[in-house]
Amino acid sequence: MGEVYLCTRARPDAVDIDVVGALTSRTARQVRAALSPYRSMVSRLRLRGCTDVDLDGVFALHAAKMEAREAGGEIQLLEVPPLIERYLHHHDGAHLLAPPHLPEDGASTRAEDERADPRRE
């Protein structure tokens, strides 16, 4: 425990980073360093494989999000496991979660699909 693996896929308009392992005081710098070169882009941090988070991890995400915003970029947390999401809510990190209305990879949201469905009228 305490190790993290980051799989980074950069495209011209965005970067996807899969996090596998813990986002804690031992790995927070590594995650921030991975996000830093892409701060002016949309960075999608996929947390499906994140096994743990602590306050240092939350602070690292918050600092990276502020840094991205100042550079004209954005960080979205996606595929957040329920336990990690609960931790973020309990420790003032809910603002880090991607709003549910944000489409992922250009896909429409469920609400948009329902509005566009003629059977719903």
Give descriptors for this structure.
121 residues; alpha/beta; four-stranded mixed β-sheet; 33% helix; globular
Task: Give me the secondary-structure topology.
Layout: E1 4-10, E2 14-23, H1 28-35, E3 42-53, H2 55-70, E4 74-78, H3 82-90, H4 110-116
Parallel strand pairs: 2-3, 3-4
Antiparallel strand pairs: 1-2
Would you mind describing this structure in some detail?
- By secondary structure, this protein is α/β, with parallel strands linked by helices.
- It has four helices and four strands; from the N terminus they run ββαβαβαα.
- The protein has helices at residues 28-35, 55-70, 82-90, 110-116; strands at residues 4-10, 14-23, 42-53, 74-78.
- The protein has a four-stranded mixed beta sheet, with helices on both faces.
- A hairpin with a 3-residue loop joins strand 1 and strand 2 (14-23).
- The chain is globular and about 30 Å long.
- It starts with a strand and ends in a 5-residue tail after the last helix.
